[in-house]
Design goal:
Strand content: over 45%
Strand order of the largest sheet: 3-2-1-4-5
Number of strands: 5
Structural class: mainly beta
Mean pLDDT: 90
Order of helices and strands: EEEHEE
Distance between the termini: 42 Å
Length: 91
Amino acid sequence: MMPKRETITDRVIYQGLSRIDGESHPYLHYSQKAGERILTGAVQVRDPAQLKQLEMEFVTGDEIELTTCTDWNAPELPTTLLSFAKTIART
């Protein structure tokens, strides 16, 4: 049986924010390398404090740790942004 909610934390590359006509909240866009492929994704930013932090502290290309939660039992499988943080550069 599939869990009702699934929380995932991944290291991704921040690709910026965008608004889609008809949507009240902007989307955070990200990419992630998976072997030879580049995967892309987006999640809505519903929290005004998170949006302000993204706009002020992050630039395209920053590596971030992104935590999201997907509700597998809800219509349209909504994914919620839980948290994000810049990762420490590896040396």
